[in-house]
Please model this.
Amino acid sequence: MSEPATRKPLPLVTLSICFIAIWLIVAAFPFIWTMWGSFKVEGDFFSRADWMNAITGPATQLQTGGTFTLDGYYGAWVEQEFWRNALNTLIVVICVVSISLTLGTLGGYALARSGYKYTFWILMAALVFRAMPHVTLVSGYLLPFFQLNIWGYLPTTIVVLVAINQPFTLWMLHSFFLSIPKDLDEAAMVDGCTRFQAFRLAVIPVMWPGVVTTGLFSFLLAYNDFTVTAMLLTEENATMVPQINSFLGSTQEQGKVMYAVAAVVSAIVPLFVLILFFQRQIVSGLTAGAVKG
Amino acid sequence: MPHKTFLAFIWPSLLAMVLFIAVPIVSVAFQSLYLEHEQILIEAEACGPFGCTSEVRVDREAMQRLREEQPAGRFNGLGTYANQSHLATDDIREIVATSANFGEIRNRIMNLPFYKALVFTLAYTFIVTPMVIALGFVIAVVVNSIPAALKGPVIFFSLLPMIVTPLVGSLVLFWMINSRGILGAALQWVFGDPTLSLTASPALTWVTLFVYGIWHSAPFAFVVFYAGLQTVPQDTLESAMVDGANRLERIRFVVIPYLVPLATFIGLMQLMDNFRVFEPIIGFSAAASATSLSYLIYNDLRLSDTPLFGSAAATSMLTIVGVLILLTPVLRRNWRDFNRK
Model:
């Protein structure tokens, strides 16, 4: 960028640096602030007197003897047994991701390789299904689930989340498989493989980048879901997000809002780690749909 | 691929979608035509040592029999759709007949729960979506111009608002704009009004929710545009430069036309996602001044004493109609593209 024609004037550079700085503060500051605040007591994080209290923590010093306290975390994880919810989330997320990827790769592969007209209709139906607000679907489940007596259990929720996830997974993997050359599996079939063998031996070894990216988004859907888990799980089977919501109701009155703050931070941390490691896949996944669709 | 192999590959996925997406929609349509049974009350004499009192209680046996005879509930036809908490046709007729001017009609219709939610949902969808596209575009252009070493960390922090659970993200902001939180206190100081609270007035609540929506979705638009910017043809840019186009003109006449298809894609995704806005209303405890269609359904199912399946189903059907209307242009375009192939 040393050519004079592309060199930017100084005011423009300053302006863009300022803009980026502001955007970064807007995007990241709330999280950093809340993480910092989760180690304080309520009197500091929600300070009536002075916002600086949340940084220096005089009330935390008074009540606990140190400027940082793990009271919120202790309250949430031990007293309110948030670890149960974390465990439920873990189970739900692992099952949803593995099942929906298995179904999705099979289906996406078939959609990418079949030349018949009905693939178009299936993809269009999937698009419409993808647009359905989840809560409208849940209102269709509740009554049958009550009658069949399968409401409130983790497996039911897992199956529902897998199904809700399918349209998206199908679209994404379908467009990914389109980018894998047809010749690859056709060559395998010429060599005498059946379709399944060709899929297993020729396609599976090269499909992992696409599967990892799709898996990330399935993970996010299962992890972030509130609508389905809040309506389909009982209190003791609740995952993290609905549990945070019920913390709000039950603990706000008892002055234990810091439990909810600690729980919220606990739910954010895995996502931080996720972006840290998979930033490139997330970016490429977000754009895959745009570039190809 | 022969039909049989195709089916062998796709049936688990299709089965899941049919069972848990298509069938529930049918089930919702069916439920919306019915109402829950009324409680059958009987008067029973309860006699104790101090005389007899009569009390009214629910007749469980009769309820059981009734449920077995008509498991779906009482047939109500389209009654649920027309009642006060949905389309409220009678109320609207009355409002139009008795109101003096247009302003009064509008205010009175806005008090009906369904229309209140519909107006908020539409406002949210059509205000947040373009703002997201605009903000995402600006961030992408600026990030594209900064030194390469900074790009990685900038993208990392930019992704946060989008990746974080909507409920959690809105709670984080809610605590900050709380009158005792840092932003709430800062706003009070800026406007010199110690009673200022963003959650108190409906208008401010709406604005807060819109701001949250933009904050939450702008990273998505940013990432898509940013990837698009990497593929803008350099030749065209250079020839524009040779023709004497300045920076702004190059963006206006080369970059933007090139990115229009991406903007359409973001717009479509955002329309679908924003139309089901729900979590922020819970996170910001904003239900008093802003409700969305999704929130109405949740409210019917979860927050009332007994789940109102009929009412929730009717709202769901109306929401689905809304989604289909939003999607028609996309489906039509896809259909044309497909036929051209």
Observations:
- The mean pLDDT of chain A is 85.
- Residues 10-69 of chain A form one domain.
- The first helix of chain A runs from residue 10 to 37.
- Chain A touches chain B through 101 residues (CB under 8 Å).
